[in-house]
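Task card 7
Instruction: Convert sequence to structure tokens.
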Amino acid sequence: MEIYLPIAGLPINFFILMSLGLVVGFLSGMFGVGGGFLMTPMLMLLGIPPAVAVASEANHILAASFSGFLAMVYWIIQLNIFDKNGEEDKDPSAHSFL
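Output:
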């Protein structure tokens, strides 16, 4: 089953693209590194132009960073680390991190 990538200007097999994402995601999670340095060369090996491969990975990095930022904001709000004046609480034992 092939899908057409209009910006890259070429059709690519959907299952190859998904399996590549799974393998790169597994490796980046296993070794604790970002998947961009793995995914960009793999996309270029599939025939996607380098500019399109780099731009798509930059969007993935932006989405992951924004997701991490939202998670951090959520936990700061949930833990109530800051008092009403916006200053950090002086008694850290009042907060449970688990």
